[in-house]
Amino acid sequence: MDPVEPRARRLEALAFGAAAEATVADALAADGWTVLARNWRGAGGEIDIVVERDSKLRFVEVKARTGPDDLAGLEAIGDHKQRRLRAAAEAFLASHRRPFDEVAFLVAWVEGGTIQWIDDAFDG
Length: 124
Known about the structure:
Blueprint: H1 4-30, E1 34-42, E2 45-53, E3 56-65, H2 79-95, E4 102-111, E5 114-119
Parallel strand pairs: 3-4
Antiparallel strand pairs: 1-2, 2-3, 4-5
């Protein structure tokens, strides 16, 4: 196997994911959400997008899928990933001491130009 091939595939996957994140950020902004951060890192985790609207805060995890063989939605976000997302969200809240009426995780599943939303995706 050519050693360049895995790197090229990885770069392609990163570009695909970045495009999906941009699509989701644009859709949220068009729906009246203010994007506070993208690819925010803290406490060993990363939050793809952080948005706010009407004192409601959403930590957005974007999952881009190329086809039906990929895991869909919440199935693609295991317990380990959820723990890292929660830790990053707690770090974000600690560093942005503002009151929010509502805080939740939002999963945006992007496939074929369509976005499916799973709001309040994780318990706790």
